[in-house]
Amino acid sequence: MPLNIAVCVKRVPDTAADKNLDPTDFTLRREPDESILNPVDEVAVEEALRLKEAHGGEVTVVTVGPEAALTKAARRALSMGCDKVVHLSDPVLHGSDAQAIAYALACVLRRGSYDLIVCGSESTDARTSLVPPALAEYLNLPGLFHARTVEVEGDRVRVQREADQGYDVIEGPLPAVVGINWGANEPRYPSFKGIQGAKNKPVESLTAADVGIESTRVGLAGSQSQVLGFAARSAERRRILVDNKDGNAHVKLADFLQEAKLI
């Protein structure tokens, strides 16, 4: 059975670029020239393309953000082999947190009829892993997250979900939302033909009003989380010596790391 797949992608700052917050609203400054496709979403794109190659169908890229979200993120997904893009861009979305973005994505995805919605499990600029499960909740669909493999058989999807002691096998009916973990596959590199062909693939541009987004549920004012302030990290270092006279140095070290919320 051919699959109609949507893959959600995000534009993020280049991993090597300096990260700065805007002092006026505490949002992350995203310079267009230093933006890339979220690397974990690239893994999700690869998984979507493999499913398309195995079952037939098409892959639609869905992205939210200004023009750079299209040029830096979505077009790379197109050059890898995706078929078309749905691009939601509206100033009212500025400052939206993970839940608000999931709501906006759900409003876009309800306009289509997708068998499978694939997301990267996290973005490198936030690492909350909140968008895929929130998206499944908004769409009232089964959610299978932290997947390392994905298989579709008939009208069901099965994943191996990474766990502390190995992996769990979970499955559910289609349509469904699947979150892919980093390292699940090796994303293909776009060919020159793919890069050139991406320029001619269909792009649907939408505003918040086009998809029925309530402005009170997005943006800085509509987000349920809020950044109250920020400051430069202290360069001060402390040296802590842990003696092992009683043979419990490992316990003391673990307690210190736990108190510092490092483990």
Task: Summarize the structure in words.
- The chain is of the alpha/beta class and 263 residues long.
- The chain has one domain: Rossmann fold (3-Layer(aba) Sandwich), CATH 3.40.50.620.
- It is 28% helix and 25% strand.
- The chain has seven helices and eleven strands.
- It has helices spanning 39-55, 67-80, 98-109, 131-139, 192-198, 219-222, 249-259; strands at residues 3-9, 11-13, 35-37, 57-64, 84-88, 116-120, 143-153, 156-163, 166-173, 176-180, 203-206.
- The strands form two sheets. The chain has a nine-stranded mixed sheet with strand order 9-8-7-10-6-1-4-5-11, sandwiched between helices. Strands 2-3 form a two-stranded antiparallel sheet.
- The longest helix has 17 residues, at 39-55.
- The protein is globular.
- The chain starts with a strand and ends with a helix.
What is the mean pLDDT?
Answer: 92
CATH superfamily: HUPs
Beta content:
25-35%
Strands in their spatial order, largest beta sheet: 9-8-7-10-6-1-4-5-11
Main pleated-sheet profile: 9 strands, mixed
Determine the N-to-C terminus distance.
Answer: 45 Å
Helix content class:
25-40%
Residue windows where pLDDT falls under 50 for at least 5 positions: none
Radius of gyration: 21 Å
Strand segment tally: 11
The CATH class label is Alpha Beta
Instruction: Decide which structural class fits the backbone.
Output: alpha/beta
- What general outline do the C-alpha atoms trace? globular
CATH topology: Rossmann fold
CATH architecture: 3-Layer(aba) Sandwich
Number of domains: 1
SS summary, helix count? 7
What series of H and E elements makes up the topology?
EEEHEHEHEHEEEEHEHH
